[in-house]
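Input record, target 12 of the design panel.
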């Protein structure tokens, strides 16, 4: 006889169902979500095992971030539970929800615990070991960095929106002049948020304005005069605001610019913390050996993968990232429309795609693959090509991690 323990986790309690493989509910009860409750649950489980001598014991719960972390780690690494061969697994809430939809039942914590146990009973659980603590610690940093990057993107969009009120042609003129400077450079951020008015900048002699820009940029501009001409042209061609509106926009731009600087500094701090921690994980050297992948991207992928042995092969790894396309076939008809699943780990997918975008700049094989996929469709060319390139990268990542080896360029490349 087998036992499946379904746990519906919330911030304060663990609603638990002890279900056998022949659909007999041995016990339905609730424990507190703390060490006392976890200990009581374990003691009950050991007592039931002593009475029934189960052939298999599976403890499962949905992935609910911080709420499921502690009980999962408690059961996974408990010596008594390891002694009886108990398996602890954290399942995708979406899968449990889809399974539950097949049954016309109410939604209560007790029923949810039963449905989790029943889902485990049909042997569709992942049966993968929970990540070691070092991967979990790294994951806290890489996910926090991801959130900070998303916040920075939103903040920059807010800045551009308000900048268009003050100087609506500046971005266009910078782009047309093919200057490497963007509106988010430290110099232009400062220029657009200081007390100097647009009219003052427009009236300043070009030579003096160029010298002013070079001083603010600490001598970094290769052609400050061209930059000065471009800014002056943008000022002349932009609409003017009334004084009240102009003052309001200046306040907004100043506050948002400070927020951008703060977020950029925070991301640098996260990067350093990630680099410091990832040194303790030997596998990161496997990934950083790939040209274009630095410690931060490598850490982001490792934090979500954990031990590569959790996945049977590279196909399962790609599916975990949501880089999978469902096949649609009926009779003799095979659908050509196979949309991307995107039901995987969005953090892992983000770092994979970012890494692929960097790798294609360094490795000819990936650059050629990207160009080929880009040319195959007239719509969403970059998105499609970079996602397919990320899927190709999964195979390399899986091979290097599974074999604990460093990247070696193809022979044709080394011969050149």
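The sequence produced for target 12 reads:
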């Amino acid at each position: 006889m087998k036992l499946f323990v379904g746990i519906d986790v919330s911030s304060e309690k663990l609603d638990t169902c002890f279900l056998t493989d022949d659909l007999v509910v041995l016990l339905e009860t609730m424990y507190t979500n703390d060490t006392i409750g976890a200990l009581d649950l374990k003691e009950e489980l050991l007592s039931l095992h002593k009475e029934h001598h189960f052939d298999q014991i599976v403890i499962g719960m949905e992935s609910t971030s911080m709420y499921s972390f502690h009980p999962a780690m408690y059961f996974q690494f408990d010596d008594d539970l390891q002694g009886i061969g108990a398996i602890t697994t954290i399942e995708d809430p979406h899968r449990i929800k889809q399974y539950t939809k097949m049954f016309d039942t109410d939604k209560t914590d007790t029923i949810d615990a039963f449905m989790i146990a029943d889902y485990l009973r049909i042997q569709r659980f992942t049966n993968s070991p929970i990540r070691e603590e070092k991967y979990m610690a790294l994951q806290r940093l890489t996910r926090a960095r991801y959130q900070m990057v998303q916040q920075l993107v939103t903040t920059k969009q807010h800045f551009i929106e308000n900048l268009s009120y003050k100087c609506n042609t500046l971005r266009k003129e910078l782009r047309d002049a093919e200057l490497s400077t963007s509106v988010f450079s430290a110099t232009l951020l400062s220029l657009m948020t200081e007390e100097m008015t647009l009219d003052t900048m427009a009236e300043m002699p070009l030579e003096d304005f160029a010298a002013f820009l070079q001083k603010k940029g600490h001598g970094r501009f290769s052609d400050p005069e061209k930059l000065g001409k471009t800014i002056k042209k943008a000022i002349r061609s932009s609409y003017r605001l009334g004084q009240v509106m102009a003052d309001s926009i200046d306040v907004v731009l100043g506050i948002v610019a400070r927020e951008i600087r703060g977020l950029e500094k925070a991301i640098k701090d996260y990067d350093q913390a990630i680099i410091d921690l990832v040194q303790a994980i030997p596998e990161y050297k496997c990934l950083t050996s790939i040209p274009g992948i630095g410690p931060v991207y490598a850490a982001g992928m490792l934090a979500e993968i954990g031990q590569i042995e959790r996945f049977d092969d590279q196909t399962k790894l790609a599916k975990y990232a949501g880089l999978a396309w469902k096949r649609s076939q009926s009779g003799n008809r095979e659908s050509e429309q196979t949309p991307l699943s995107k039901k995987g780990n969005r953090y892992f997918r983000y770092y994979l795609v970012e890494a692929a975008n960097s790798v294609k700049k360094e490795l000819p094989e990936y650059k050629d693959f990207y160009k080929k996929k880009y040319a195959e469709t007239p719509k969403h060319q970059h998105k499609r090509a970079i996602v397919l390139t990320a899927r190709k990268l999964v195979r390399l990542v899986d091979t290097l991690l599974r074999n604990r080896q460093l990247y070696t360029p193809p022979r044709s490349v080394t011969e050149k």
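The chain has three domains: 2-130, 137-276, 284-415.
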